[in-house]
Design brief:
Domain PCI: 74-165
Pfam families: PCI (PF01399)
Helix content: 55-70%
Number of strands: 3
Protein name: PCI domain-containing protein
Strand content: 5-15%
CATH architecture of the largest domain: Orthogonal Bundle
Region (Disordered): 235-257
CATH superfamily of the largest domain: Winged helix-like DNA-binding domain superfamily/Winged helix DNA-binding domain
Family: Belongs to the CSN7/EIF3M family. CSN7 subfamily.
Structural class: mainly alpha
Number of helices: 9
């Protein structure tokens, strides 16, 4: 049965229990091999009310399995193995290579065989860790691990980290918006400049066309003026010739030799 279904079922059962039956349910939950989170149980009102009863130890036990690591508390053999597996999860949350030299004291063990038994049976076998043992290098190589419950102190750190990330994201968003606005304004200015350039080019084309048209009309006007000039000269010659005959025409004196 998947661990998330078990977690929900334990929480549903706990809502209807009080006192000793509730304490026994908590004890049973802490020995479930593939159950790594207990927040659904821990935050129930009925469970928190155990703090003022003779079953307050059950609440302390649940806190230990939610946030704690292997310690010298009195536990059953099954609970000890489970808490050691949870301790491995805590260490695997920040590192992917866990040396035996680090795991042995953290789990309160001295024998490598006992350590490897916990790693193989209670971690990898229970589905809490995906990875392999490197016996030559004396370490556990973690590929993936189940996350444990976050303690109040961890939640504060997470909230601070998320707040810093949010501030950074807002800064990036503001920078992107400013860059976008600048790009829009630049594009508008470029479009206006291109429009002005096009207008200038069009004006020059129209001016050139007008000059060309005027030049094309010029020769015809010049021809008429020439015609009028010829007629004027003709009239002058006729005036000069009035009252004279070819024989009376003025002659230039001959140059003497």
């Amino acid at each position: 049965m998947p661990s998330d279904i078990k977690r929900v079922q334990y929480a549903q059962l706990a809502r209807s229990l009080r006192g000793r039956p509730l304490a026994e349910l908590i004890s049973r939950a802490t020995t479930e091999p593939d159950l790594a989170t207990f927040g659904d149980l821990l935050h129930l009102t009925a469970v928190q009310e155990l703090s003022n009863t003779e079953d307050a130890a059950a609440l302390s036990l649940l806190n230990l399995f939610s946030y704690g690591q292997a310690s010298g508390l009195r536990l059953t053999a099954a609970q000890e193995r489970k808490l050691r597996a949870l301790t491995v999860l805590s260490l695997a949350a920040s590192r992917r290579r866990l040396a035996y030299a680090e795991l042995l004291p953290a789990l309160g063990l001295q024998d490598v065989r006992d350590l490897e038994d916990i790693l193989v049976t209670n971690c990898i076998g229970a589905g809490l860790v995906r990875g392999r043992l490197d016996q030559a290098e004396q370490c556990l190589l973690v590929e993936e691990s189940v996350a444990r419950d976050a303690s109040p102190a961890q939640l504060s750190a997470i909230a601070a980290s998320l707040g810093a990330w949010l501030d950074s994201a807002r800064g990036v968003a503001a920078a992107v918006e400013a860059a976008l606005q600048s790009a829009v304004e630049g594009a508008a200015a470029e479009a206006a400049q291109q429009a002005q350039l096009a207008a200038d080019i069009q004006a020059k084309r129209e001016g050139a066309a007008a000059v060309h048209e005027a030049d094309a009309e010029g020769p015809a006007n010049n021809g008429l003026s020439g015609l009028f000039a010829d007629e004027s000269e003709m009239f002058s010659l006729e005036s000069m010739g009035e009252g004279s005959t070819p024989g009376n025409a003025a002659r230039l004196p001959k140059r003497r030799r």
